[in-house]
TrEMBL record:
Residues 146-187 are annotated as: Disordered. It comes from Modicisalibacter ilicicola DSM 19980. InterPro entries: CT_A_B, Cyclophilin-like_dom_sf, PxpC. The keyword ATP-binding applies. Residues 33-312 form the Carboxyltransferase domain. The keyword Hydrolase applies. The lineage of its organism: Bacteria, Pseudomonadati, Pseudomonadota, Gammaproteobacteria, Oceanospirillales. This is Biotin-dependent carboxylase uncharacterized domain-containing protein. Keywords: ATP-binding, Hydrolase, Nucleotide-binding. Pfam families: CT_A_B. One of its GO terms (molecular function) is ATP binding.
Length: 319
């Protein structure tokens, strides 16, 4: 099949928007001192592999589709890639499997149904979706009204259009699909790596034992800002704090003793005591958990966490 030639652009028109579909590049960095959060893909792992399947450079903007419900009409010919959750994607009613590339012709309909495994799917296009950067990024943060396809952080709406350069590399030049070990089983309860730190020494011994030896459940109060967990009530000697800077994956424990894991659209400062932080890949895995899903924590040292992340980045030649 032929694809759009060099210099030609392709559009995807939104036929049905679904609950939440957002453009996300690698994120917005160097601006937290202004009170602006990072944004970026909630599941860095799925986003990275979707872009990699098309040979895109690190940072290319892809579409993060949460819960499904999205329907797109192609207005050109090109190649696309899909990774992350299985949201019952179909192309003209034929199934499209995650972790794969596929061809798109003008007039075809790409639909996403309901979560079958995981919560967020990532749709990549050649070179990434085109949009005007805001503070150095096109990542959409709805709360702050920044980035996205409209420059105001908006989620996709009916009749919106997404634009990208249609030209794709020849199939023989494209990377291989990810190996089996890079395709998570989103149904199996994950063991999430937590690097202890911050106020961890202020929690009592029983609480620390329960953090790593008891199960937790994802609460229905979860979004791109953070994930609330329910389980044992944790007790901390710290009852009042001056607000501190908050990084990705910070595990805060408010007075009710139930942890909150802060994600990409988190506030930039917080005043609750923290157990430490999940690693970026642990955050990615948590971002694929539906409400009610069981999780477990495992302790990991900072050196091991850094080595693990470097190995992940090496898959994409980012350093």
């Amino acid at each position: 099949m032929s694809v759009a030639g060099k210099g030609e652009k392709v559009q995807l028109r939104v036929e049905r928007a679904g609950p939440l579909a957002l453009l996300q590049d690698a994120g917005r960095f160097g601006v937290r001192r202004l009170g602006v959060t990072q944004g970026g893909p909630a599941d860095l792992h799925g986003w990275a592999w979707a872009n990699h399947l098309l040979g895109n450079a690190w940072g290319a903007a892809a579409l993060e589709i949460t819960f499904g419900g999205l329907s797109l009409i192609a207005e050109g010919e090109t190649s696309l890639a899909l990774a992350g959750a299985d949201l019952e994607a179909t192309l003209d009613d034929e199934p499209v499997e995650p972790w794969s590339r596929f061809e798109l012709r003008a007039g075809q309909r790409l639909r996403f149904g309901s979560p079958r495994q995981g919560l967020r799917a990532y749709l990549a296009v050649p070179g990434g979706f085109l949009a005007d950067p805001v503070l150095g990024s096109v990542s959409s943060v709805v709360r702050e009204g920044l980035g996205g396809h409209d420059g105001r952080g908006g989620k996709l709406q009916k009749d919106d259009t997404l634009i990208f350069q249609g030209e794709s590399r020849k199939s023989r030049d494209l990377p291989r699909p990810p190996p089996d070990e890079e395709r998570p089983d989103y149904i199996r309860p994950p063991r999430l790596a937590l690097v202890p730190g911050a106020q961890v020494a202020d929690f009592d011994g029983t609480s620390l034992f329960e953090v790593f030896n008891r199960g937790w459940q994802v609460d229905d109060r979860t979004d791109r800002m953070g994930v609330r967990l329910t389980g044992p009530v944790l007790k901390c000697a710290v009852t009042s704090m001056i607000s501190e800077g908050i990084g990705l994956g910070a595990v805060q424990v408010p007075p009710d003793g139930q942890p909150i894991v802060l994600l990409n659209d988190r506030q930039t400062i917080g005043g609750y005591p923290r157990l430490g932080a999940l690693t970026p890949l642990a955050c990615s895995r948590l971002a694929q958990c539906l409400p009610g899903h069981d999780i477990h924590f495992r302790a990991q040292g900072v050196n091991a966490a850094q080595a693990e992340h470097r190995r992940f980045l090496a898959c994409f030649r980012t350093g």
